[in-house]
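step=predict obj=Glycosylasparaginase n=308
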Amino acid sequence: IKNEPIVLSTWDFGKEANAEAWTVLGKGGRALDAVEAGVKIPEADPNNQSVGYGGLPDRDGRVTLDACIMDEHYNCGSVMCLENIMHPISVARLVMEKTPHVVLVGDGALQFALANGFKKENLLTPESEKAWKEWLKTSKYEPIMNIENKLHKPSGGGAMPGGPDNHDTIGMIAMDAKGNFSGACTTSGMAFKMHGRVGDSPIIGAGLYVDNEVGAATSTGVGEEVIRIVGSHLVVELMRQGLPPGAACKKAVERIISRNPAKAKTLQVGFIALNKKGQYGGYALQKGFTYAVKTGKEEKLVPAKSIY
Ligand code: SD4
């Protein structure tokens, strides 16, 4: 069967990433290759202060990266707290394809990357270093979200400590012409986090889940809250039970609220999802979460519905 390929990704910068993914999907290529190629765009973009190169560092001034990838055969790979490597998603893919493991962390992940030809690079840009030094003056860790869209500046522009730029991750999910699904998720994590902190993004089931029988989901926002409910897996299971993607995302967001209503008001979490029919949707706790969609017929940014 020939399916209409489709790719979805988080935030405004998902648009450029989708365009790159399309260079694979549009030619009938594999969803796995598409999502890897797609998320490499923000990973290498120094103006994007929340993914890869140019990402905001942890509170010790170190840029530590989290990424995972999953294919149509339930294969998955992940790296956590990886430093000095421009494309953690490609290392995650190699963990999936070349090792008997799913996750490599920290120095082990770095050694594996270096042994496979990746180069050590400095990922802390002068802008991000400046933002960190600014943050050091108060050293207040406040993961408060982009309540307003206008506060959200995905393409650089002075991330405010604890402010709106504090968390953007690219999560990308795609279906190819064969009807196969894959997903990728990559981030420098919450700005000014404790050294060693890992969020939802590289955790299979939390930040990303792909089930070729059902569809795929990925998340962005305060990772701790997503991990608590194993968010992306929850969204996929809700779709398995028959909910459309948007409704499944909404239910996952409501689950976060039910766990701690007062806290949920102060932070952002967003999910996007795609099912076997090519239907898609997204939902967030707060206003201001957008996601990008591309098919052969359309290319757009969708402001996600939200609870608050
Ligand atoms: C994390 N979920 O490390 C990531 C951050 C994020 O938009 O999504 N930022 O918790």
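step=describe
Residues 245-259 form the longest helix (15 residues).
step=end
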